[in-house]
Amino acid sequence: MTTLDQPRSTETTVDAVVSDTYGVLRRPVATVGWRSWLFTVDHKRIGIMYGVAAISFFVLGGVEALLIRLQLAGPDGTVLSADVYNQMFTMHATSMVFLFAMPMAAAFANYLIPLQIGARDVAFPRLNAFSFWCFLVGALFVNTSWFLGGAADGGWFMYAPNSGVAYSPSHGIDIWAMGLQITGIASLVGAINLIVTVINLRAPGMTFMKMPTFTWMALVTQFLLVFAIPVITVALVLLTLERSFGAPFFMPDAGADPLLWQHLFWIFGHPEVYILILPAFGITSEILPVFSKKPLFGYPLVVFSGVVIGFIGFGVWAHHMFASGLGPMSVAIFSVASMVIAIPTGVKIVNWTMTMWGGKLRFTVAMLFCIGLIVQFTVGGLSGVTHAVAPSDTQQTDTYYIVAHIHYVLFGGAVLGFFGAFYYWWPKMFGKCLDERLGRWNFWLMIIGMNLTFGPMHIIGLQGQPRRMYVWTEARAGEGFFNLGFWNTVASVGAFVMAIGILLFLINVVYSHRTSPPAPADPWDARTLEWMTTNPPAPHNWDRIPRVHRLDEFFHRKYEDVGTGDRHDLRRVATVDDVLAELRVDDPSTIHMPDPSYWPLVLALSLPIIGFGVIYHVVLAVVGVVLLIAAVFGWALEPSSAPDRRVPTESLT
């Protein structure tokens, strides 16, 4: 006989058997050990799992990139065959865009948004768990193609008609399309969850214009996902129907138009660039003020420029298609739009620079990565402006100049921003600071390797080297400064320098975990709300939800501004312990959190089974649908968390 006379504690224990009002029994769910991670609905653990999975696929994508650069390091390379090379660059881009950058942004959003807005969790914790498991099974599904006859080989853009069965008869593209539909479900439900969280669960007194900039940029990103993911989902469904059932959506010989795929893909694909970069902009806007010891310069401009980028980002997709014969009017309109979007991005760069101007700068590793982002992203932005000029873009299309541009934007922007976030929020997440000495080596090797790798691609691209070529010949390499052989070798060496820098980060993680002492409560003298909790936070985040009075609430509780005008002279008025003590209660065990659940995992597992069924045999699809229906009913009938309910003992015998 079991009773629940005591309210459920937030400590990690094993749940008792609970009965809902209809007498439906719930199986006990373990919340200790490895099963606690499988069944968790805690936004912080889900954020960490997103991050671990994303870094794993980052390493995989990096290995794929190194193989590409080995193939191109010298003339007439034989490391990869033409077919395997096509698979390798397709899966490299897929890994980096869909399986690293997007989930890495989701990792920080899941972990930080509830903490930054003063919430105990996201609005729908079990849906949040489903989002993660959906992403993970979809990502693994995509990579099963390596073992099932070959991976997708049409490029991450998968242009028709090359993506048709006639040109790619293996199942690689089928698995790719189905896997991205599964990860798209993860992105969509996660975005809706975070939007509802920000709108409804902000702490008392936190208006929208008192929210941290990372939360703002993450919120804009979620809206971009809500509107962009359905577009790529439609395109992927049409591609699946064409390849698996012969529906003629993109086949020219059946009267269809292959440009339909390009429009659908790039209506998603260009907002996707800002889906990847806006979270890094938010990270930079959080870190620079802390290590400049100044408020963010022009906070409203930074916020609204991010919103404007989100709006305009949906109106520039056709600059990827200037060489496809759109016509002069369409080209002119999208050229202007592509130039205009540089304005709000430039506003951010000015604001970041003015934040540092006159500040008391501390060049921590997190600060170095954010400064690196400003410099490297500016290079990528300037080369991007040249793509807005249609005649120039027509010459640059399908050359390595484009490869250089997108990597300066995404690696120089998103990846450097994420690494800055690692060093800044690591003590918050894990209670220990990463080693700063190793971190500086990590930073400089990544910066040097990045410029050695992608800088020369501007030169070889303007010299006419096509992208997606698997060999180049010495006879056509040119001479002198513009010799393709020399710059390809430099780019390949740079890739390995960059890889060593990333390896040092992984070494730093292990080294710091083993040797670093526990981090202080406020190691950086931070400004925002998430630092008003323990490191790492308790399962319920706060004993008492804080009331917010101004932007940078935590900083203002510690300091009083006694300056005048633009001058900021600060006087310490409270210690970190004083601030944290205000939020403590005597008995946090009365704070109730959602119970763990295994149904999100079961529901996610049904999706790849359905996917394999669509591709290989209908019986598998039927099995997957049955499992999906069972999981939906199990989830729906699972009792809601109500641990303060007094359950009659006779119902639990």
Q: What does the model show?
A:
The structure is a single chain. This protein is mainly alpha-helical and 653 residues long. It has one domain: Cytochrome C Oxidase, Chain A (Up-down Bundle). The protein has 19 helices and two strands. Strands 1-2 form a two-stranded antiparallel sheet. A hairpin with an 8-residue loop joins strand 1 and strand 2. Helix 7 packs antiparallel against helix 8.
Secondary-structure blueprint of this entry?
Layout lengths: L33 H5 L4 H30 L9 H36 L7 H19 L28 H29 L12 H33 L13 H34 L6 H14 L15 H13 L1 H15 L8 H24 L1 H7 L3 H31 L5 H27 L21 H32 L37 H6 E3 L8 E3 L3 H6 L17 H17 L2 H20 L16
Antiparallel strand pairs: 1-2
List keywords for this structure.
653 residues, mainly alpha, globular, disordered N terminus, disordered C terminus
Summarize this entry quickly.
This protein is mostly helical. Helix content is 61%, strand content 1%. Strand 1 (559-561) and strand 2 form a beta hairpin.
The CATH topology label is: Cytochrome C Oxidase, Chain A
- How many strand segments? 2
Order of helical and strand elements: HHHHHHHHHHHHHHHHEEHHH
Under CATH, the homologous superfamily reads Cytochrome c oxidase-like, subunit I domain
Count of structural domains: 1
Which strand order spans the largest sheet, edge to edge or round the barrel?
Answer: 1-2
- Estimate the global geometry from the Cα principal axes: globular
Tell me the structural class.
mainly alpha
- Helical content stands at 55-70%
**Main CATH class:** Mainly Alpha
Largest sheet: number of strands, sense, barrel closure: 2 strands, antiparallel
Low-pLDDT stretches are 1-30, 642-653
Count up the helices.
Answer: 19
Mean pLDDT: 89
Q: Strand content of the residues, in percent?
A: under 5%
The CATH architecture term is Up-down Bundle
| Rg for CA atoms | 26 Å
**Terminal CA distance:** 5 Å
